[in-house]
Amino acid sequence: MDAGKIEELKTLVERCKQNPSLLHTPSLAFFKDFLQSMGAQIPETEKSTSKNLVQRNDDEDIVESDVELDISDVVEPDNGPPQKMGDPSVEVTEKDQEVAQLLKAGAMDAISHGLFDDAIDYLTKAIILNPKSAILYENRADVFVKVKKPNAAIRDADAALQIYRYSAKGYKARGMARAMLGLWGEAFPDLSMALMLGFDEEISSVFKKVESNAKKIDEHHRKYECLRKEKELRKNDLKRQKLQESEAASFLEDGQVIGIRSFNELKGKLNAAEKTSQLAVLYFTATWCGPCRYIGPVISGFAENYRKVVFIKVDIDEAPLAAAEYRPTLLPSFFFVRNGREIDNYFGVDMDLLEAKLAQHAV
Asked: What pTM was estimated for this model as a whole?
């Protein structure tokens, strides 16, 4: 293989190492396909546009700040009627090619004298005669860049690249035109490709600014994307928590004393109380306990008055495992539980003392 071609290939590989986004350039699709066929993982690239400069997020909590960019050479877009383009389906004769070459020479002379409108007229006539020449489109795109008509330059650069996908001048003109429109994310790969195909001092100068702006926009977007994702996660967590609380609350009976018949049932009620951050009062009793029957209506009244407290009645004969877990030494017994942990207890029938404890822990 020719040594010069090998050096060019080495240069291409080095540039792709430094800037993997180049592999997403359409003209390098064949190289990307080859790498992927060998098992290579091609990193994704993110497109940034001029909207990044001033776009604000409608999110009520996260408002993006503007990115400080060098926009000294950004111009208003040229939104007039598009320039005349050649018909690629026409047959081009040798005479057409000769006349087109003469017109191109006239255009070059006009450019040297700063007569850019004349140059555009010459090149337009040449393109009509020979619409299959990428060079003619490249030259007219270059003139449109000089007269600050970036959209026209992009149309001509696209035409040139359709004819010849390795057109360095086509990538250069399109990259510079996109930079003039503030399309930093799109200008970056174009100018990178132009530099790779052929170094140019003018490209290098513009590329430095484009690379800096594109990097700032990328970092800016990554930062706010992380913030938005974090906010979305918090929102989802809050929704999930509210749903769990709602389900747990429906499992409890507000304003009533809840009777349970097993240890598992007790665990379910305590878990529901924990999910809703409610205080649970376990009321241990038995059918044969006279004082328990006496205070029953009072406990029901407490349940009505302290609706944020879950009152759970445990018959020690019906739920012996629950009794074994808390070990009430006498009846009635009361255990105050918050977040799955016992925080206080009371044994006896002094309802004033019991209500004092309720008032203390129910806050």
From this structure: 0.50
